[in-house]
Automatic annotation (TrEMBL):
Protein name as annotated: ABC transporter ATP-binding protein
Sequence ranges assigned to domain ABC transporter in this UniProt record: 2-232
PANTHER family: ABC TRANSPORTER ATP-BINDING PROTEIN, ABC TRANSPORTER ATP-BINDING PROTEIN NATA
Gene Ontology terms for molecular function: ATP binding; ATP hydrolysis activity
The organism of origin for this protein: Nocardioides euryhalodurans
Pfam families reported in the protein's UniProt record: ABC_tran
Amino acid sequence: MISAVGLRKSFGEFEAVKGIDVDVRRGEAFGFLGPNGAGKSSTMRMIAAVSPVGGGELRILGMDPATDGPAIRGRLGVCPQEDTLDNELNVYDNLYIYGRYFGIDKATVRERTDELLTFVSLTEKAKSKVEDLSGGMKRRLTIARSLINQPDLLLLDEPTTGLDPQARHVLWDQLFRLKQAGVTLVITTHYMDEAEQLCDRLVVMDKGLIVAEGSPRELIDAHSTREVAELRFGVGEHEALAAKVEDLGDRVEVLPDRLLVYSHDGEEVIAKVHERGLQPAAVLVRRSTLEDVFLRLTGRTLVD
């Protein structure tokens, strides 16, 4: 579905994408995970055939975006990071008129509009103004609009940014159903839980480069431990206390507000911390996540 070799993109002197290789297979959910500024959105714009390739080779659906841009865009669905809904139109017409842009006949586009409103649970809002919708409803409408042309490939750039937890889970369910129906998804996100929930495979990007690739489970197994013990001490104490616990796990990371001790038994780490007379203000044992992978690979957290 997507094949990129040595893909690059520059803006003046700044190189946003520094020669990456990517292959996306039919029917999978593929993710680009990384912080803001990692090069995810620049890569997505090239894949969407709306930004020219700066270097390397890129094929989308077997076609070259430099020469087959319109044909590629006709077979893509794109959910941008920012909602681009038409506030002058009601919910129904946002789908209907967008569908007509693709040359879909009126009867078919009406049928698809009704089906998509049902799919995203907005049938009762069909005649409502866009400005009256909640943030979650707007994102669902944007995704519905991106599906109006029955795309072979759906691109989602930070699909749940700004949504509350309940709205995020509703959206995850809809994206999971799309994947089950055979739609190929390409998702950019800086939410590690989102990537773990949705992606079959992903790449971790940092500063325009791919620093790791694999399934969420493969990446966690390769770059982290089974559990993490989080220790919170007083403000400004973590750097000095790191040396006192560094032998309790495979490695220790010092964050501004806590120490992370990586081991295969977090409860044992906590017990040994107390045996040494240390009294954290708070402790937490959790499983490793993709954020721990990113911290290991880049030395910073996803929200830095």
